[in-house]
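Thread title: Can someone regenerate the structure for this chain?

I was given the following input by a collaborator and told the matching structure tokens would be attached. They weren't. Posting the sequence so someone can regenerate them.
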Amino acid sequence: MRLDSTTLPSAGLLALRVVVGVTFLVHGLDKLGDLAGTEQFFASLAIPAPGLMAPLVAVTETVGGLLLVAGLAARFAAAALTVNMLVALVTAHDELEFFAADGGIELELLLAGANLAIVLTGAGRFSLDDALGVERRVSRWWRDQDLDALPGRPTSPR
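Best answer:
Regenerated them for you:
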């Protein structure tokens, strides 16, 4: 293993991905193991089409968790899981309690923030994304975008 300026940040991203990924994997498998119960729970929260949403959320959490652990399509998986947690924040909490033990938003907020960090940073060097060159291609694509040509963007520097 080469030690350079990316080693420790990438090790940190690996730890973050594994912990968050395993958390989603376990929650997703729990939902898959009792889809009827998950559907009933979603219906009690007035989530539209609970019969469709229960398996969709269960598969998103299970597959997304696996992808995070592997560091494969990590930005995509983390984006989907961020949206998943934002929907949970909005639908599962009538009152704005913070602590999870009190039925609060603590877990959803923490997981949404952790996933957003992965969306913004990528999976890091210790990932399948890096091994397959995904991060280099994404970085090159962003670098090649002419953001000054976007509609409504001022053409002269301020």
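Residues 9-132 form one domain.
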